[in-house]
Structure formats: structure tokens, C-alpha cells
Amino acid sequence: MRIAALYDVHGNLPALEAVLAEVEREEVDAIVLGGDCIHGPQPEETLRRLRALGERALWIRGNTDRLIAGDDASDELHTWVAAQIGDDEVAFLDSLPLTQRLEVDGLGDTLFCHATPRNDEEIVTPLTSDDRLNEILQGVKASTVVVGHTHMQEDRTIGGIRWVNAGSVGLPYEDDIKAFWALLGPDVELRRTPFDAEAAAGAFEAVGREDAVRFAENFRTAPSRREAAEYFEEIAAERGER
């Protein structure tokens, strides 16, 4: 199989449409949607577009999907997103599996999850030590693990397991204003696709909530990959993950 891995779309429809147009030019057998696709400024439109992919789309539940569907949906955009998509689609997000497992050409047995195989919000960044990542992967029976969550692409091998972060389609922290995703099989291609960044900024601003509007600047000045990694590592240390 050849797979397009799209993670962390975050309701950014202009970025999603650009990536899907590029995916259609590739011969892929499936599109893995790796979680946190809906939490953002255009949740209803994004969900409708992804649902239209039908059986080609293999979904995974991310941490924001869990929060949107949970009783604690209160902060940031969770309650707003839930109201936009309606109860039936909230239930759909809540029902999604935590992992997908596929045999990918050239990569072998490949496990797809949102953050790590054991947790949907555990933090791994390019600054995470090999020793720490090796601990996270203990007991995993797969040749390749594909994740997202921290919005930074990565490709390294630890203890015989290839660890791939597909990056974020809709809210990247990559020193570049592009939509980031991965094409898998027979090797790993970390892709970056241009999109209408001003349209994305306008979508975040149109929500009219401060917790959405603040992300608009990410599409005018690219967030620093190094600063994002350092920030996430600090959070991981505060949680006791380091």
C-alpha cells in the first residue's frame, strides 16, 4: 500500500484543499487522517470535505477530538467546534479508533497514532532524546510508527523502529508557511504544500474568538521550529514526561 498521512488539519480548509489536490496527483491506496482535523476555524466545512473521501479515509482520534466530544469541552475552541458540527458528528469523533495499522510498501507493518502509541497527547519533538523515545516505543511491535500532535516533521530510527512525524497540514511550526504531510511507500517523503495563507488567516480571524484569532499570525509570520520544540519540551518536563 501507498499512504498519504494527513495530521493536525485543525479546521484549516484552504490548507486541506491544497494538500488533497496534491494527493490526487499521487497513486495512493488510502488517506490516513491522524487526528485533530476538525478543531479550528472551519470545522463543519473541513469535516464535510473529509467525510466526502469515503472509504479511502482511515480516521484516528486525536486529543482535541476527545476534548470536543468530552464533558470537559469548555476552553479554547472545543465548545464552539462541538456546536458547529452538531451532536451526530461529535459522536462520530468520539467513536474514532486511537490507531490504524497498515502494511505499507517498503516500510512494512506501520502503526499510525496521534501522539505516541500509548497516549494521545504525550510529547515527542525533534529535541526529545533517543533514550526517551526508545522508552516510549518499548513493547511496540511495528516496523514504522507514524504520528503528529507536535506539528513538526521528523524521521528517525530508534531501536529498529522508524519514527515518522507527518507534520501538520493546518497549523505547522516549521519556519515555513506551508501545509505539511507525509507520503508513505516505498519510502518516507515529508511533503510541504503551498496554500492560500491569507485565506487561512482570515478564517481564523472570522471566528471572532481570541483563542482562534491569535493563530492568524501563524500564516503571516512562520512560527519557529526550534522555539516550538523548546516550548513543548518545557511542557513535557512540567508534566513529568522528562
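^ that was protein a. below is b, sequence first then the C-alpha cells
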Amino acid sequence: MSAPKAPDPAKTAAAQTESNKATAVTQYGLNATNQITPYGNLNYSQNGTWSDGTPRFTATQSLSPEQQQLYNQQTQLGSKLNNLAIGQTDRLSGVLSKPVNLSNEATESRLMELGRVRLDPVIAQREKSTEAELLNKGVRPGTEAYKRATEAVGQQTNDAYNQLLLQGRGQSVQEALAERNQPINEISALMGGGQVQTPNFVNTPTPGVNGTDVAGITNNAYNQNMQGYQSKMSGLLGLGTALGGWVFSDARLKSNIQRVGTHRLGIGVYDYDIFGARERGVMAHEVADVMPEAVRKHGDFYQVNYSMIGGV
């Protein structure tokens, strides 16, 4: 009777790998479920295989016709707005190349320019009215009364321009800054309207099928066969001892060997573990050296006839 052959680790590992691969493919197939929604669809399809033959899959998203139309319009609008903004950069370059002058001289010059447009017609009309009123009263140019009246009109004109300079400075500065910032704000708004949206990708489905433990099954089968073998061998050992016949005493079957004495043949006597039990006996290869007729081969292992050697 021969002991069961131990499984080949390399073949067991290869079988486990193939089982894992087949399980993964099955898991993906079970989880790669096509999805249909009012806004679009998600479809899975096989697009060939990897170098080891494992299937390759592609996940494809598609929008509904209505959503696709909105997307196309948004893309077209964004492109046009971006092009418009790029075209306005020349204008912006011209604006930014000129520094904003907010000095008193520049500000007052701007105010005086604006003031003449509005105040000069009013002042001219006031001077005519004053002159006509003086003439109607009989006050002639060159007289002291005429001189005092015209000086009063001139003082009013001077006060009007002073008030313009004092109250209008803040407004003039704000207008100058607004004039400079307006093209910048316009281009920023155009650029903001055409930004590209980052797509959201779908994660690979999570497997949900338990794999087959090929290595565990193989090792369990080997252990069961070995236990059955050892049980049979133990039975044969007990039978051989009871009948005074042949008993397995091969050193390859023994473990935890300790020499405890010397046999009358001059060979060692040992305690050892064999077939799940602690036994005492001799070693078949030592008996063969002094009494070969008391040793025989049974299957792959050697037996000793303890009756022939006079027991232990």
C-alpha cells in the first residue's frame, strides 16, 4: 500500500488562479447591468480580450436626445463666448497699457471739461439776463452799479466751478475707474460663460460572487486521503502485532524519534510517533544489517517481523 501523493504546489496555484479569473469574469458579467434613465443610458460591451485571454469590457454613457441637444448648444455657446472674449483681449491690452491718472490736476481738468459743457451755457444765459435787467433799469456799462452787478455774476460763476471741483472729485474718480474696469469685467463674464464641464465617470462594478477555494479543496482531499491511509496502516500495524507477524517499521513513517535502549541484536530501541500513536520498536534498516530475513518490503515501506527478532 502506497501513501497518497502530495499535490503539486505549482499546479494547485495555477488551478486556483484560473478559478479566480473565471470567478472575476462571472462577477463582472453579473454586475455589468445596462442602465436606462430619462437623462441617458449606460451600456457595457466586450471589446476584445487581454493578452491572457481575459475579456475586456467598455462602459459607454450616452445622453438622451433632449439632453444631448442641450449639451451641444452649451458647447456651441461656450465656444462662441470664448472666441468673443479672445477677440476682446486686444481692446483690453490697449486699456491696461495706459495707467489710470487720479492726480488733482488730471481730475480737475476732467471736471472742468465736463463743467464747461453744462455750466458755460447757464453762465452765459445768466450774464445776458443780468445785462438786460441792468439796461432796463437804466444802469449803463461803466457805471459803478453796472460794475458791481457784473462782478456779482462773475463771483457766482467762480463759486459754481469751485463747488463742482469740491463735490465732483469723488464722482470723477469713480467714473475713471469704471471706464477702465468695464472691459475687464466684460471679458471675465464672457470667459466664465464658456467653461468646460468635467465628465463624471462610472466606477467599475463591484464583484459579488464568492470564488472557489481550489487550493483548499485540493489540500483537504489530500489530508483526508492521508488520514485514511494512516488509519489503514495503523490497523495493519495493530494486526501484525497481535498475530506476531510483520509490522511496518520504516524510519520514513516515524517522527519524534528518541533512542531509549539497546536490543539483544545490538541495535537500537526507540520511542516514536507512527500513524497517530506513540510506539516503541526498532528501525527496519538496522534490523536488515544484522538479520535481513526478518525484514521485507511491503509497498513502498519496510516491515519487521518482531516474532523473528524476539520482540522489543
